Amino acid sequence: MGQINGGVLCKFDQELVRRALVEMVITEELPFSFVEKRGFKKFMSIAQPLFNVPSCRTITRDCFQVYNKDRLKLMKIFREVKPKICLTTDTWTSLQRINYMCLIGHFIDRDWVLHKRILNFCPISSHKGDEMAKVIGNCLLEWKLDKVFTVTVDTASSNDVTVKELSKQLDM
Q1: pLDDT tens digits, 153-167
Q2: 91 near 99, Cβ under 8 Å?
Q3: What is the superkingdom listed in this entry's lineage (predicted)?
């Protein structure tokens, strides 16, 4: 079924719109639950009534599929470029009292383009520095990254311990 858009007949493609939605959730760092918000559903019913808005669970699964595919590409880049990497963490506790940490890597490629990539998103047992250092260290091993330039953590009380423990692991 087509729709006239600016005088041009357009063909609606559910999968193309769904992929664009997943890309928007990722690039704009939106919560997965964004797709279940009343305002978004109303907007989509007007902008594209044919679009079947996927559930939060479906968007989550789609985002992880994109992550896994992009992860392989990024590992190849890391093997070739061997960048000095700057790390930042973001930690929080969910409404269900589960602690989470997101580890983000910032690096410059051979063309001097700055990149920001999520390296790990995982539950952690606590926001304590030694636990955070352990998770960060394991992630660096998994990605085979050993040239860490900076580490920025968001939990002020954990900063000193995290950096101290991580420096032991990295032989800084």
Answers
A1: 876 677 788 888 888
A2: yes
A3: Eukaryota
Determine the Cα–Cα distance for residues 39 and 36; give it in Å rounded to an integer: 9
**How long a stretch of residues is the chain?**
172
CA dist 150 and 87 (Å) reads 6
52-86 CB burial, b ≥16 within 10 A, e <16 = ebbeeeebbebbeeeeeeeeeebeeebeeeebebb
CA 162 – CA 150 distance, rounded (Å)? 12
Amino acid identity of residue 3, one-letter, is: Q
- Chain position carrying tokens 């964004």: 34
The C-alpha atoms of residue 123 and residue 100 are separated, in whole angstroms, by: 4
- Determine the residue type at 69: K
The residue written with tokens 């679009």 in the block is 51
What angle separates helix 159-170 from helix 129-143, to the nearest 10 degrees? 40
Summarised one tens digit per residue, pLDDT across range 39-84 is 999 999 999 999 999 999 999 999 999 988 999 999 999 999 899 9
Task: Name every residue whose Cβ is closer than 8 Å to that of residue 27 and which is 6 or more positions away in sequence.
Answer: none
Q: Specify whether the CB–CB gap between 10 and 3 falls below 8 A.
A: yes
Q: Cα(115)–Cα(82) distance, rounded to whole angstroms?
A: 14
In the structure encoding, which two tokens stand for residue 106, read together?
Answer: 């910032």
